[in-house]
């Protein structure tokens, strides 16, 4: 090609990332958010808090409570349930934008709290926790050593990643099944009724508050599973990972696919990560090519700051999506929970 | 679509214009830190003259502010070590076996390494900690000092909070990007301070200041306010007006401001770099004592200016026609419109004034240090102020901001200073639960 770009590398990135661990984690978090927002109309801007709850549950169980990895999964789920109650009981009566602000405040509070040096013994403070998932990787069925990747067409993964992906995407599949069944059931119909017109649902005798709490809990636990898998994948939990920008990436993933559709979190996650990785790979190739001078001088783009472009692009994508296609690819305008205030 | 694209492109180009001025600075990555130690009055004083090193990369000596920075060639894991022998007498590491830290540096972003120091020896520190756990810190002197800090922070916060509150009042929009208006104020003032207009438009360089070269901070701050007002106007005119006209829902607009804030924030990071920076003038000042409290001259003057500015804003709101119109529209938009007020014009003025005030607040905060994500770090404090005082009222924002400033600073008498921002968040949550209309707001259905 003109600028001697290695398209093979770029496509490998696109497809590997689209099916890789990051996409899987975000798919899970978005499935949870779909239950919150897509089906129930809850403006949860704190989904990253649930991810943190799950992740720290596992990490703390192994490293501080010393009860082992499998108990840690249980603890993570318990943390998510606890967070849902703590968050939901006081706030589910709030108007949408106030709920949004409160959930961001809650997720930031969690981040600051686990980051606090007074918690260093329990949560690792600002440095976080590391190396708690050996039990998981000991069960790995893929046995190639770390530096020899498995390669198939445009896909390339290491053994550890493949194992996390196998387990992770299976969990995703199970959660999709769960979502599908739930939303087809009478319970799911009540949720949608609440989303459309809460007063009407209440007038029919449904305890809207209780249903919303349940939705928050289920969506939160699924989000927590995403957080756990991410922590297992990286073998590390760090407070600053769980920041609001991640929450809004999860939102973007959900909106791309289209809220209130069972599959859309998965599609959205794949598209989002595939495109972002592809864009970044393309830019790295361009920087390596003969264009590097031009890029450095006029756009100030070089190896140092190429990773920041993904966030700028993401912010822009979120803006354009919400403005021009808020129902995403597969959603329908009628089923959207956006208030007409 | 075209307007949105033009607006985004214009903003991006202007901010990208920074590149020419900055191309020699702020790139690469470094391990940085600040060494400070708590003296017997509870003040954190910087420790100068200590050597910190990274094997194979270099070393640094802490300056008068206790700051050190060791650039590294590439992203990766490094071991940073404090050379214990260079610590001054009476200062030691809190954990003697943590003289070395392992840090993971990402490309283009500086990584902070934290070394905990204590005065005296470890045993002394343990005793002191035990003492402070019994509430040693509540001396009249400390209360006075923290109150002044709180008042100062509250007044600066009020600058940003008023704009946010009025924008909500007049348009119903919760503007998450307000944080970036604060940062924009800091950054553009920084540029005027160092490079003049040439920071934006490179070929002006041969001209005299303020076009070609930097200007004094005070002049730069005025220019910064103007650019803040312009940015506010541009955002409203370019983005939100067409959305209001097209009937885009307020929730969607709110999420759009979130996307905008992310876009702007990383645009700032991209061009400004991850390092904190300082204004050219007045940066290193020693605190002077006024009675029981210590305050730097620049902070004293800034606090004074902020009081004057807030009084002017109050006067504007109470005594001028446009001010009354602003309050009317914020109170009840339809009623104001039907009584002949040009709502569109009022909204524009609110965005301009909000942007200019936020910029000024950014400058005041920037007297301490300037960072690409500064606004975002105080965003939740701004929200806490606004909701506490009452979303939609300017006076409420002022009251709320001062209360938040005082509460979070005075709270350090009882809890660890690291948690003080958490206190603000808890205040926010509690207000939304028990009195969502805030102190000065009117009761309305918020459920």
What does this structure look like?
Chain A is mostly helical and 341 residues long. Helices cover 70% and strands 3% of the residues of chain A. Chain A is built from 15 helices and four strands. Chain A has helices at 7-18, 21-39, 47-65, 69-91, 96-115, 120-123, 134-138, 159-184, 186-196, 198-203, 208-234, 244-257, 264-288, 292-299, 306-324; strands at residues 129-130, 150-152, 155-157, 236-237. In chain A, a hairpin with a 2-residue loop joins strand 2 and strand 3. Chain B is an alpha+beta fold and 447 residues long. Helix content of chain B is 55%, strand content 12%. In chain B, the strands form five sheets. Chain B has a four-stranded antiparallel beta sheet with strand order 5-4-7-9, with no helix packed on it. The longest helix of chain B is centred in the middle third of the chain and has 32 residues, at 140-171. Residues 16-26 and 130-136 of chain B have low confidence and may be disordered. The chains are: A mainly alpha (341), B alpha+beta (447). The interface between A and B is large, with 57 and 56 residues.
What is this structure, in a nutshell?
The complex is a heterodimer of chains A (341) and B (447). Helices cover 70% and strands 3% of the residues of chain A. By secondary structure, chain A is an all-alpha fold.
Shape of chain A, please?
globular
Give the overall shape of chain B, derived from the CA principal axes.
globular
DSSP strand count of chain A: 4
List SSEs of chain B in N-to-C order.
Answer: HHEEEEEEEEEEEHHHHHEEHHHHHHH
> What is the largest interface, and how many residues per chain?
A-B, 57 and 56 residues
